[in-house]
Structures are given as structure tokens and as C-alpha cells.
Design brief:
The structure holds two protein chains of two kinds.
Chain A lengths: L1 H27 L15 H10 L6 H13 L13 H36 L4 H15 L2 H15 L17 H39 L2 H8 L4 H23 L1 H6 L2 H6 L5 H10 L3 H28 L1
Helix pairs in contact in A: 1-13, 4-5, 4-7, 4-13, 5-7, 6-7, 7-9, 8-9, 9-13, 12-13
Chain B lengths: L1 H12 L21 E6 L3 H10 L4 E2 L5 H8 L4 E6 L3 E7 L9 H10 L2 H9 L3 E3 L21 H10 L3 E2 L5 E2 L9 E5 L6 H16 L4 E5 L2 H9 L5 E7 L6 H6 L17 H11 L4 H18 L2 E7 L1 E6 L2 E2 L12 H6 L1 E2 L9 E5 L14 H10 L4 E3 L6 E3 L2 E8 L4 E7 L13 H13 L3 H7 L2 E7 L3 E6 L6 H6 L6 H4 L14 E5 L2 E4 L7 E7 L3 E6 L10
Parallel strand pairs in B: 1-15, 8-9, 8-10
Antiparallel strand pairs in B: 1-25, 2-12, 3-12, 4-10, 4-11, 5-11, 6-7, 13-14, 16-17, 18-19, 19-21, 20-21, 22-23, 24-25
The chains are: A mainly alpha, B alpha+beta.
Chain lengths: 312, 551
């Protein structure tokens, strides 16, 4: 309990630092929201009005106090890009991103772990070579290329999947039809992402398992005549579970922050592009809120990983 | 394939009933289709696939030569190409040596082979710029051509007393060796052709003895350094408009301030006088004279080198009739939207799918800033006057006539509205709506419209349909600033609590034709119905539109 309290305090301190850095870093980065207004019809006076509209004419100390108040209340202020509340912007995009990336993470981890274990168990076999080659290919393939090939094949040449978005235009009537339509739209991006990410898991788990299967306790278990399946999953795999779980949990912030390239190719309305555009346009409230939330999720996942270490 | 594109262009130019300077808007009656979707497809390759499979009907801003040729080769798509108001420049920092010397800037301009660059980089889908306004501008007056090439440039420098030292470096008449020039540009991952042009420009400068190299950097960093005037030379691209008063923003010495657009820092009394004359021109003829004079002075001073102007290229599915384009306007325009119908007799009414490559950020007309926001808003809101797509002259729109006169203190604009105008919710559009709209944006000091309405001193209504706008100074451009402003309904505007946070697309307003509509009410051809962020915007035909069939 004492250790957990110590870690909790450390996490709060990390969040406080992130909060302050979010404010400072975006303001010391080259450019500001006004630099992006490249319209010669905007006179210097009109630009000053724009600065006032966004509260950039206030003293820096006052801006910081306002910023901290907005962040801690989880209101996050108004987006400079859209004029809408930042919370509304983020919460309208995160469900799409999570719906795409969470199943992708689970599927790619499950497939990768299973293949990694199989490859480690059948060392020197065709299966291992296939997993090694397949894993390396999956891990290193450029995502946009595979996704464009998918579009060409399954949305153009053989048009069984849609080209874009998360809904048909016009959307189908009825909740069940909408849900099926939604899943149909996510099928192609999700399949491509699973193909692109299972390899990393397979290679990592295979390497860890090869090491684990050579350990003395595995030899002891074999000498006791335990079934191979039990040795592999209950002894060897269990020993590599803590780092695997840590990686899985630390991948969760990525599930929220989105996959910019995938969102671009498949025209998905996700959090990744919003975050990128917020940073590029110096939308301080949106970028600050997004990074603060990501830091919060990372810290929470770290705490969860620590807790799970004790369980497994 | 290029022949095919050229043939398409010729065909569009030869369109029978709408052509010429006597453009008649009454020849248009529409919109004819009852539903319009603005569809978000971000990836360029996905856009092409969508065009070919019929998931899209209209695609704008096709800029990659390979895409143009691919689409031009398809019998499912008709292309149109037009000169545009885009302009690409290389800007020198004339505040410091050696770019404070006009003869060196002129020689640099002569050494840059824009024609070859344009051909090599854009496969001909761009035109070299010959003046400081794009060729399509009615005010573009190219100066007398100078001899081009590195040899001619070196001769000019030699005649002006410049020499070359033993290392081949250029030395000024007072004996100062020209230091290395860094041409700022965005990285090739962001703008490949811009980076390439920066390198070509650096090579051309080096060829006349002014050592130079391109310096690609993060775009925001580049903007910040140029804004702080911390640069030797940089690349700039601008989207300009039909009015040449933009020259004032770019080259008047008073605009060399923080937030101002005189990036080069040029300050010349004669040029300042010509630009002031242009800005305050009382009528079109004076404006034309002042614009010509300013361009001729700029050609002598050469603070920036005009490089090229991109063509605007768009595509429409060939299963539509009524596509309208000119040599100045591509087919993705309001006239097409009004007149397009499915090809073939008896074809049923079907939706139009129009691509927007980015999601709509905001449909609050007071804060919307992106082209795509305004693509949608442009079909909802109207202005008092519009633009002849052949000549870029003014044509009647909400106002059936107008005049610009000299008052005691400044220009007086008089607009007489058409008879029987209605808002999309069925209420009458009156002179009071016009007065209220202008005063609303002036009183609220809304940045986007601030420069347009700043000089409005008073507005008077002469019943039943005439509005007189008194300006505090004289300028012909007031007509375009006020006449081009969108007009909003007073009955909606007076309920807006805070224009900054107003979300008209989400606030229910009234029931029209059995459908709920929002506060996003204008007088344009399409009524806003629904926006799904990042997916699409749905619009339906405005049955109260002034050009509606049968009205």
C-alpha cells in the first residue's frame, strides 16, 4: 500500500510537469496561431483582433492560470480551429479511434503471441521460418502502401468494402443496420492494421519464449513428465507474461491517440488527425488537452501494469 | 491524354448559351437536383478511385500531373482547367546586403528560367508568372520583357559596376563580396516542388556569382523566421483575388510591420504613392491606372520574383449534363451546381457527391477560416453582388443594381435588392437584413470581416429595397468588400448571444417542408440539413431560392 501511494504521488507529479510543459512547449515552438493566418486580406489590425478573440493578448501569467483551470476542470476551453469546446471535439473522435484500434490491438496481440509461441516451440521448423519472415515483413511494411493496395483490391477492383469513412452516404436506417454498416467500414482498415502489427508481437514473444524454454525450470518440468502444452503455457509463457502485459498496457495510449496514416487513407474521423492538425495549427487548447489526456492515460496504464505485476 | 484534356477545355469554352462578357444569370435556373452531399475523402488516391467508381461526382484541386493525366484518360470523367489566382514567389529580404540592390534582384530574376522550371516540375499544368499579379487577374499588366538567361544577367551586373573575384564570387561596385544566400523553403516531404524550386533558384543565383543554397525547414519555423524578418530569401505562395489591392499589403512600406505582409521590406516613395492611389482609387479606371503603375514600378524594383501560377483543375463525372466552365473558372462552381442534371432522358433525380479533402472545421461564418468550410457556407449564404465567370466583372446577385458615388466624407454605395427575395425559412429578405448584417460584424469587430467593414460610417435604408452604405473614405474596393460580404438574417442574428461560440449548424431553428432546419439559414441555393464530422455534410435544394426553377 505504501509503495502504491508512493507511485501515485509520483504519477501526480508527472502529470503536473506535463501540464506545465504543455503550456510552455507549445508557446516556445516556432510560430503561433496567428502565423498560420496567411491571408493578405487580414491587416495587422485584424490580426490583433484575432489574437484578442483567442485570448492571446492577455499576459502570459493570466493565460497560464486560465489554462490550468480549464485543464483541471476537464473543460479544456474552446478549440481555435473549430470554435467548439475541445472536450466535444475529442469525445466525438475518440470512440471511432478506440473502435478501430482496440480490437486491432487485441487481435494483433493475440495472433502475434500465438504465432510467437508456436515458432518458439517448433524451432528450426518451417513454421518458425514462416513466422520470422512473416513477422519481419509485417513489422517493416509501410502502412500507407498496404492500405492503398487494400483499397485498390477490395474497394475498387473487387468492390466488396467501402472506400472511405465509417458510414455509408446516406446512412442506413435502423440501429442494427447502422452497426453492421459501421463494422463493414472498419473491416478494411482494421484488417490492414492487424496485418501490419501482429509481426512485432510474434517476433518479440518468439524471442522471449525461446529464452524461457531453455531455462532450468522448464527442463525440470519436462523431467517430471508434465504435458508439453502445460510446460509451454503454464510455465514458460507465464514467465514472460509480465513484460508482455506491460507492453500491452503501454500500447493503450496509442489506441486513443490514433493512427494518422490509416485515418488519412481511409478518411476516418479519428483522434490522430485532430491531434496532428491541432499541433500544426498551434491550437493551444486542443493540443494541450490531447497531450494532457494522453499523459493521464499513460500514467494510469503504468499504475495498472504495476498492479498486474503483483497478480501474475 | 493532354490532347484529350485540351479538347475537353475547348468544348467547355464553346458552351453555347452562357458565354461571353454579356453573361446572363437569368439563363440559369436551379438548383435542379434535390440533394447535395459534401463528402470527406482525404487521400488523393482514394479520391481518384472514388471518381472512377462513381462514389464522387465532383473533384476539385487536382494538382499532381499524374492524376490529371490518369483522369483525363478516363471516359467516365470530364476535366476542366483554368488559370487561377495562385501565385508563387521568391522573396528577397531587401533590408540587407546584397539584396538591397535592385540591379542584383533584377539580374537574379533574369537568371531564373521559370518557363523550364514550370514545364519540368508541373508537366505544363502551371504557367510562368510574368507580373506581380497572376495572368488571370483583370489588372495584370506584364512589364516589357527583359532578355533572359545567365549571360544576360551577368551583362546587366557588369554594366552596373559589379565584378567577379578570382573565386568567381560576385563583388559589389563598392568592393563587398556577396555572402552566401540561404533560400528558405519547406521540406520536400511537405512541398516537394517548392523545395525543388528553391534549389533551382539557388543554382541560378550561384550561376551569376551570388553563392546560394536552399535551406528546407519546418514550415512553421520558416513562417516564424520570415515574420521576424530573419532571412535572406524565401519561397512564398499566395492565393490572391480578383482585386489588385493585395499589392498594397505586399509592397507598401506601412505593411512592413509585425503581422504585415510586406515580407521583402521594400520601401520606395514612388511605389508607396502608386499603391496608396490604388487602394484609394475612386473608380475602376483609376484603379486600373494605379495597378498598372504599381506593377511597372515593382518590375523595376523586383523585391520578389514571380515564378509560377498553378492551374486550377477539376473533374466532373461525365454522366452529368449542365457542367459549366470557362477559361477562368473550373467546373466545380456554383453555376455547375445550379444546372447539373443526370445525363440521359428520364434519369431520376439523384444526389450530387462533391468531394472535400478535409473535414469541416466550423460552420459558424464568423469564425470559419478554411476553404472547405467556405465551400459549404458558399452554397448557404449569398452576397449583394457576384462575379462574371468570363470577365470577373461584377454582376447582380441579391442586389439587382448598385452604384458607387462620392459623398461628403467618402464613397457612398447604393444597392437595390431584387424583388421577392426570401430566406431559406421562407421569411422575406429585406434591406434591414443587409443593414443589420453589416453593422453586426462592424460592431462586434469580427476579425474575418474587420477590414471590409472598418470604414463603414453609416447605413441608410430607402424603402422599399434600397440600402445606402456611407464609407468614411474613398475607395473603389469598398464596393467589393461590402458587396461581396455574406448577408445573414436579422431574425437569426439578433438572437446570437456570442458570435465566437455560436454553433448555427447545431441550433434548431424552424420547420421547413416538414424538415427541421438549423440557425444556419441563408438565401443560397442549398439548405443545410446535417453535418457528420469528418464524414459528410448533407444539403437539400432551397425551394425559396431566387433562381429556383419556376420562380
Amino acid at each position: 500500500m505504501k509503495e502504491f501511494t508512493r507511485r501515485l504521488c509520483g504519477s501526480v507529479a508527472v502529470l503536473a510537469v506535463v501540464l506545465a510543459l504543455n503550456f510552455v512547449l507549445f508557446r516556445v515552438m516556432p510560430g503561433d496561431p496567428l502565423t498560420g493566418v496567411m491571408d493578405p486580406k487580414f491587416s495587422p489590425e485584424a490580426k490583433r483582433q484575432l489574437a484578442a478573440q483567442w485570448g492571446l493578448d492577455k499576459p502570459m501569467g493570466e493565460q497560464f492560470v486560465l489554462y490550468v483551470r480549464e485543464m483541471l476542470s476537464f473543460r479544456f476551453g474552446l478549440s481555435m480551429m473549430t470554435g467548439r469546446p475541445v472536450w466535444e471535439e475529442i469525445s466525438s473522435r475518440v470512440p471511432n479511434t478506440v473502435a478501430l484500434l482496440l480490437p486491432t490491438l487485441v487481435l494483433s496481440a493475440a495472433i502475434g503471441i500465438w504465432l510467437g509461441v508456436k515458432a518458439a516451440v517448433r524451432r528450426g521448423s518451417f513454421t518458425e521460418r514462416l513466422v520470422l519472415w512473416g513477422g519481419a515483413l509485417s513489422f517493416s511494411f509501410p502502412s500507407f502502401f498496404l492500405q492503398l493496395v487494400f483499397l485498390m483490391c477490395f474497394a475498387y477492383a473487387w468492390p466488396v468494402f467501402p472506400l472511405r469513412g465509417t458510414t455509408s452516404i446516406p446512412p442506413p436506417a435502423g440501429e442494427m443496420a447502422s452497426l453492421i454498416d459501421y463494422l463493414w467500414h472498419l473491416a478494411l482498415p482494421m484488417t490492414s492494421l492487424v496485418l501490419l502489427s501482429f509481426g512485432g508481437w510474434a517476433l518479440y514473444v518468439r524471442n522471449m519464449m525461446v529464452k524461457a524454454l531453455g531455462e532450468d525450470y522448464v527442463l525440470t518440468a519436462r523431467s517430471r513428465g508434465l504435458p508439453e502444452r502445460r510446460i509451454v503455457w503454464n510455465h514458460a509463457f507465464r514467465s514472460i507474461l509480465p513484460p508482455v502485459l506491460t507492453i500491452l498496457l503501454l500500447s493503450l495510449p496509442g489506441v486513443v491517440s490514433g493512427a494518422v496514416m490509416t485515418e488519412t487513407v481511409f478518411s476516418l474521423n479519428g483522434a490522430g488527425r485532430f491531434l496532428l492538425e491541432a499541433v500544426n495549427s498551434h491550437d493551444y487548447p486542443s493540443a494541450g488537452a490531447a497531450f494532457f489526456l494522453l499523459a493521464l492515460i499513460t500514467v494510469l496504464c503504468n499504475l495498472a501494469a504495476d498492479a498486474l505485476y503483483n497478480i501474475v | 491524354m493532354k490532347t484529350r484534356l485540351a479538347a475537353a477545355l475547348v468544348m467547355l469554352l464553346a458552351w453555347p448559351s452562357w458565354g461571353g462578357s454579356s453573361f446572363d444569370i437569368s439563363a440559369f435556373r436551379g438548383p435542379r437536383m434535390s440533394e447535395l452531399y459534401y463528402v470527406v475523402i482525404r487521400d488523393t488516391d482514394a479520391q481518384l478511385l472514388a471518381m472512377e467508381t462513381g462514389k464522387l461526382d465532383v473533384l476539385s484541386d487536382i494538382y499532381r500531373p499524374a492524376d490529371v493525366e490518369k483522369l483525363a484518360g478516363s471516359d467516365k470523367v470530364e476535366m476542366s482547367l483554368a488559370s487561377s489566382f495562385h501565385g508563387f514567389f521568391i522573396t528577397f529580404n531587401v533590408r540587407k546586403f546584397p539584396w538591397d540592390r535592385a540591379e542584383l534582384r533584377t539580374a537574379a530574376s533574369m537568371a531564373m528560367d521559370r518557363r523550364r522550371w514550370t514545364r519540368d516540375l508541373f508537366s505544363g499544368y502551371a504557367e510562368p508568372m510574368t507580373s506581380f499579379l497572376p495572368a488571370v487577374s483583370p489588372y495584370c499588366e506584364p512589364p516589357e520583357p527583359r532578355p533572359q538567361g545567365v549571360d544576360a544577367a551577368r551583362r546587366l551586373l557588369a554594366e552596373a559596376g559589379w565584378t567577379w573575384n578570382t573565386k568567381g564570387a560576385l563583388v559589389s561596385p563598392e568592393g563587398r563580396e556577396v555572402p552566401k544566400t540561404r533560400v528558405f523553403c519547406p521540406p520536400s516531404s511537405v512541398a516537394a516542388t517548392t523545395t525543388e524550386i528553391a534549389w533551382m533558384a539557388a543554382d541560378a543565383l550561384s550561376a551569376i556569382g551570388a553563392p546560394a543554397e536552399a535551406e528546407p525547414m519546418d514550415f512553421q519555423t520558416m513562417l516564424a523566421r520570415v515574420d521576424a524578418r530573419d532571412f535572406d530569401a524565401c519561397t512564398n505562395a499566395w492565393g490572391m483575388s480578383r482585386d489588385p489591392d493585395v499589392l498594397y499589403s505586399f509592397y507598401h512600406s506601412s505593411m512592413d510591420v509585425e503581422g504585415g505582409y510586406n515580407l521583402s521590406g521594400i520601401a520606395d516613395p514612388e511605389l508607396d504613392a502608386a499603391l496608396l492611389e490604388l487602394r484609394n482609387a475612386p473608380d475602376e479606371a483609376s484603379a486600373r491606372t494605379a495597378a498598372g503603375r504599381a506593377q511597372s514600378l515593382l518590375a523595376a524594383l523586383m523585391p520578389v520574383i514571380p515564378v509560377y501560377s498553378r492551374y486550377s483543375i477539376s473533374a466532373v463525372r461525365s454522366d452529368w449534363d449542365g457542367i459549366f466552365a470557362t477559361d477562368r473558372v473550373t467546373s466545380d462552381n456554383l453555376w455547375t451546381l445550379l444546372s447539373m442534371t443526370p445525363r440521359g432522358a428520364g434519369e431520376a433525380d439523384r444526389p450530387i457527391y462533391w468531394n472535400i479533402p478535409e473535414e469541416i472545421r466550423s460552420l459558424n461564418p464568423f469564425v470559419s477560416s478554411t476553404t472547405y468550410d467556405w465551400t459549404v457556407l458558399g452554397t448557404i449564404y449569398d452576397s449583394l453582388i457576384s462575379v462574371n465567370p468570363y470577365t470577373f466583372e461584377d454582376i447582380p446577385w441579391l442586389a439587382e443594381s448598385w452604384s458607387i458615388d462620392m459623398g461628403e466624407r467618402g464613397s457612398v454605395l447604393t444597392f437595390t435588392l431584387r424583388e421577392g427575395l426570401l430566406w431559406q425559412d421562407g421569411r422575406p429578405l429585406t434591406a434591414e437584413d443587409v443593414r443589420f448584417s453589416i453593422l453586426y460584424v462592424k460592431d462586434a469587430k469580427i476579425p474575418r470581416f474587420y477590414d471590409s467593414v472598418r470604414d463603414v460610417s453609416e447605413i441608410e435604408i430607402i424603402p422599399p429595397r434600397t440600402v445606402r452604405v456611407f464609407m468614411s473614405n474613398t475607395s473603389y474596393w469598398h464596393l467589393h468588400n461590402i458587396g461581396g460580404m455574406i448577408i445573414l438574417p436579422k431574425h437569426v442574428l439578433e438572437k446570437v448571444e456570442d458570435w465566437r461560440t455560436w454553433q448555427p449548424a447545431r441550433a434548431p431553428h424552424a420547420d421547413v417542408d416538414g424538415l427541421e432546419i438549423t440557425e444556419l439559414v441563408g438565401s443560397g441555393p442549398f439548405v443545410f440539413r446535417e453535418s457528420r464530422t469528418g464524414e459528410y455534410v448533407r444539403m437539400t435544394r432551397n425551394k425559396h431560392y431566387m433562381l429556383e426553377v419556376g420562380r
